[in-house]
Amino acid sequence: DITFHTSEGRFNYRVCAIFLHQNKVLASDRVALGETAQDALQRELQEELGISARIQRPLWLNQAFFTEDVDGEFTHELCLYFLMDAAGTGLLERGESFTRYEGQRRHEFIWLPLEELQDKYFYP
After folding, report:
1. Which of 21, 34, 75, 117 is most exposed, with minimal Cβ within 10 Å?
2. Is 84 exposed, middle or buried (0-12, 13-18, 19+ CB in 10 A)?
3. Contact 54, 45 (CB under 8 A)
4. Which long-range contacts (CB under 8 A, 24 or more apart) does 25-29 make?
5. With pLDDT > 70 as the criterion, what percentage of the chain qualifies?
6. pTM for the structure as a whole
7. pLDDT confidence bin for 123, thresholds 50/70/90
8. What is the DSSP code string of the chain?
9. What mean pLDDT do residues 26-50 have?
């Protein structure tokens, strides 16, 4: 994420890759300063999932204002969402859930049924 703090709160800029398969969703996010949204998606997918994937199309831009649960800081966030193509990535063969490591960081992935998203505490 590109994040900076001001006296009024925090600003955060993110990108999010959305994979859809059989009414389930898998998501990944983050972007670095000076990096295009598309390059950030490809870098993060390689780092976190070990894959390259084709961007099908932009889905939407979301602007959010919220107070962070953890630290209580007011946040203004912009997030660009892209629909991704899972074909040829091997993601579907990894099963309903899987774990990947990026150095010391552990990433848990699960294919969440779309109808369950409203009941989950789900970060994009």
Report:
1. 34
2. buried
3. no
4. 25/111, 25/112, 25/114, 25/117, 26/91, 26/109, 26/110, 26/111, 26/112, 27/124, 29/1, 29/79, 29/124
5. 94
6. 0.84
7. low
8. -EEEEETTEEEEEEEEEEEEETTEEEEEE---TT--HHHHHHHHHHHHHS---EEEEEEEEEEEEEE-TTT--EEEEEEEEEEEE-TTSS-GGG-SEEEEEETTEEEEEE-EEGGGGGGS----
9. 86
DSSP 3-state of 46: helix
The token pair that represents 35 in the structure block: 């990096």
CB atoms within 10 A of CB 44: 20
What is the total residue count of the chain?
124
Whole-angstrom Cα distance, residue 63 to residue 33? 19
**Gap between the Cα atoms of 46 and 31, Å rounded:** 13
For residues 48 and 102, is the Cβ–Cβ distance under 8 A? yes
Look-up of token digits 């983050």: 30
